[in-house]
Specification:
Layout (H helix, E strand, L loop, with lengths): L7 H10 L2 E5 L8 H11 L3 E5 L5 E2 L2 E2 L11 E6 L6 H8 L4 E6 L6 H9 L3 E3 L4 H8 L4
Parallel strand pairs: 1-2, 1-5, 5-6, 6-7
Antiparallel strand pairs: 3-4
Helix pairs in contact: 1-5, 3-4
């Protein structure tokens, strides 16, 4: 699979400019990675929008069932879903006003990557947004 992520410097700029992160698959269970990562990003000053049809709220924020339920502009869509589900999320991402498609560490899907890159989107896969935020803070 050929996933070409932006450079650390480019990721630093993305994270510096981003304000709102929609988190697809965000769990309300504090033991889950999606919860822990999102809590850290929220504490760092990002607005977190939980996207999960099975929960009412998490991290003090009302959850939405799908990306299409978000009315505001989304800077980053951070995806915590299995790799085989990334293409479906990519198709929904393409229907909303969002800038960056980000699949968390361990997640990649070449079909989703090609679909979004051909449309001109910035795509990041198999990278942890929390780790990248920590690693690039000095570059911001």
């Amino acid at each position: 699979m050929t996933i070409d992520n932006p450079s650390r410097e480019e990721i630093a700029v993305i994270l510096k400019n981003a304000k709102r992160i929609a988190v697809v698959g965000l769990s309300n269970n504090p033991e889950r990675t999606s919860y822990q990562v999102s809590a850290v990003m929220q504490k760092a000053g990002y607005e977190i929008i939980p996207v999960n049809p099975t929960i009412d709220e998490v991290l003090g924020v009302k959850a939405v069932a799908s990306l299409k339920d978000i009315k505001e502009h989304v800077d980053i869509v951070n995806v915590f879903r299995r790799s085989e589900q990334l293409f479906d999320v990519a198709k929904e991402f393409d229907e909303i006003d969002a800038d960056i498609y980000w699949a968390q560490l361990g997640l990649a899907n070449e079909e989703a990557y090609k679909f979004l890159k051909e449309k001109g989107y910035t795509v990041i896969m198999d990278r942890c947004i929390k780790v990248e935020h920590a690693l690039t803070r000095h570059l911001q």
